[in-house]
Amino acid sequence: xxxxxxxxxARWRLILGSGSEAVLGGTLDGTLQQREQVxxxxxxxxxxxxxxxxxxxxxxxxxSVPEWINAVHELFPKKTxxxxxxxxxxxYQIEQMVTNPELLSRAQPSEALLKAVLRTRHLMNQQVLALxxxxxxxxxxxxxxxxxxxxxxxxxxxxxxxxxSYLKIAGNFDARTTIRRNLRTYDPSSRRLFIETPxxxxxxxxxxxxxxxxxxxxxxxxxxxxxxxAAVTAAIFFGIRSxxxxxxxxxxxxxxxxxxxSDPVETLMKVQLGGGTDIGQALAYAASLVEYPRRAIxxxxxxxxxxxxxQRLLSEAKKLVESGVTLLGLAALDAEAKPTYDRDTAQxxxxxxxxxxxxxxxxxxxxxxxxxx
Length: 373
Description:
The chain is of the alpha/beta class. It folds into 3 domains: about 5-135, no CATH class; about 160-205, no CATH class; about 210-370, Rossmann fold, CATH 3.40.50.410. It has helices at about 5-15, 20-25, 30-45, 65-75, 80-90, 100-105, 110-120, 125-150, 175-180, 225-240, 265-270, 280-290, 310-325, 345-350, 360-370; strands spanning about 55-60, 60, 160-165, 185, 190-195, 200-205, 210-220, 245-250, 255, 295-300, 325-335, 355-360. A hairpin with a 3-residue loop joins strand 8 (about 245-250) and strand 9 (about 255). Helix 8 crosses helix 10. The longest helix has 27 residues, at about 125-150. This is Protein containing von Willebrand factor type A (VWA) domain. It comes from Gloeobacter kilaueensis (strain ATCC BAA-2537 / CCAP 1431/1 / ULC 316 / JS1). It holds the Pfam family VWA_CoxE. InterPro entries: LolB, Uncharacterised_CoxE, VWF_A, vWFA_dom_sf.
């Protein structure tokens, strides 16, 4: 059987669904098998008299609704995603994520759930959206707790009593603010104050001239992990006195979120995943923010799949590098730092003098700290 024939049969198996393997034969593997299992999670309900919600498989693990949403967005193109979401809501009444406040309020915060919320936010009514925001806040708090120390550590110095910090160190404890903001938990009967949220000062290096750190984040759907970690990392960078941090997200337009950089929840709730990509335009906008090129770092977080003419991207990158700006392209910024990206475009940027890598938030902080020393 030719490769073309095998592909044709595989496509018919995806279309016909359960039971077609007996007629079409063969086995599916890799991405095709995952697609079949994700489709079965939804469309096998057609064969159930009462259309009970049944969990399908993805590999060897059972799918939850958030995991199914994430798999759909990772395995299918945009038009197919829209059709699957519409069928899930209208045809099979899978309302757990986007219409049922009670179920959402009981959901356990996780990064998988956070990604599912970001991907389906456009389908939520206002009541569910308010609950989703609370879930996002809880997951972000966990990530801030996880990354605050490794991001802050390379920059530790004198206490800055004008800025808050997510790094919980006893020597940085802000007793006055902690007491003032936790007064509502005071128990008159026992005359005790219960601390729900402790507050800490930030620390800064003794450095007269601050560096500009301009973070550009590609909000295409494939970059969702990096988008989340970039928002968290930028919030921590914002509290470092030796840096002046800018945060911009982009697709075919650029949105400057620098004034909300300290609030990663607000940042993420404004992200519009998917759409086109114009990296050259984002670099041009970054160039317009630069004040002193030799004290500026532009961190471009993208998979380097350019939707606009490549020559503009290369031209803007060349101008930045030649002006003295330090340009770092990150194919991934997350806990794993294992990217999928356009290696040819990345190599062209390296040839122009940019640096390209994949990093965890802690590794990025160490890299930036080394540059500003």
